[in-house]
Amino acid sequence: RKSRQSGFTLVELGIVLALIGIGLFFAISKMQETGDASRAQNVANDISTTVNNIQRFYSTVNEFPSTFSQSDLINNKVVPQKWVGTTPAVGTTPATTTIVGPFGGAVTITRVATLTSEASIKIENVPSRICSEMGRLMADGYRTITVETTEVKAVNGSLDIGALGTSCSSAGTVSMTFRFQKA
Fold first, then answer.
1. Alpha helix (H) ranges present in 58-78?
2. Which of 42, 153, 182, 183 could crosslink 117 through cysteines, CB 3.0-4.6 Å?
3. In the chain, where does DSSP find H-type helix?
4. In the Cβ-directed half-sphere of 121, how many Cα atoms lie within 13 Å?
5. In what order do the strands lie in the sheet with 107-112?
6. DSSP-based three-state secondary structure for 119
7. Is the Cα torsion angle 169, 172, 177, 178 positive or negative in sign?
8. Short-list 112, 130, 114, 156, CA closest to 47
9. Cα separations (Å) of 2 from 5, 6, 9, 80, 117?
């Protein structure tokens, strides 16, 4: 009499492992998308809070200053505490406190030269995968939005989704600039 072995063949095991792998790939992708959307929302909230704080801090003057002092912005808690970084002392150079953006790049706040009642906040090193979501989240509250050098939302215009997508995918990280008016 022949005995028949029971169990799975290598082909059957391979198919099961492939299906599990595909399922894990989609689950991880979905988790990353959810994490990216959450991070974009958090950064958008931080930028909006910073802009509101700038408007409040300069509410007693008719125009924004020609330059924004990082120490004023830090000492008066205009920027989120998590954006404040310290560069350690090196040799005779003392330690400095600077504004470091949510993605590790610089944050630059400047007055629009020709419009003293408008300013902009530039965030560097924004990951491309988060850029489009941030643009969509921020479209309503800002005069213009620029990604790198491309204006994706013009003054009093609507967000150009095509230009946003193209500009955001131009590199691994991009800079985004949000222009706003004095409140």
1. 70-75
2. 182
3. 10-57, 70-75, 128-138, 161-168
4. 28
5. 107-112, 115-127, 173-181, 144-147, 150-153
6. strand
7. positive
8. 130
9. 10, 13, 19, 76, 92
Amino acid making up residue 180: F
* Contact predicate 88/78, CB 8 Å: no
Residue 67, both tokens: 């330059």
Local confidence pLDDT in tens for the 183 residues of the chain = 666 667 777 888 888 889 988 888 877 777 776 678 888 999 999 999 999 999 988 888 888 888 888 888 998 899 999 999 887 778 887 778 889 999 989 899 999 888 888 999 999 999 998 999 999 999 888 999 999 999 999 988 999 999 999 999 988 899 999 999 887
For residue 81, give both structure tokens.
């505490």
